[in-house]
Amino acid sequence: MISIAALYALVSVITYITYVVDKKAAIKNRRRVSEKSLHLLALAGGWPGALLAQQRWRHKTQKTSFRIVFWLTVVVNLACLVGFVLYPYSG
Question: Rounded to two decimals, what is the model's pTM?
Fold first, then answer.
């Protein structure tokens, strides 16, 4: 079974690449990745990769509404992680 850390790493890499693709599309004035998709990737555990991409590529750092929702996805993801660790499913 895949570990939680490996899952976060995998989703973070996918999220980072998605941010880079979106940044390049923005520069070339092409079809963009939806903000909803970026938020869903962050919520799924890709927020570390999203945070790195935002800083490295200076992407999605100016839009306040995006940043607020992004940090909410981080909080929700971490709350779920804590809940999973503290109260594991023993079914």
Answer: 0.92
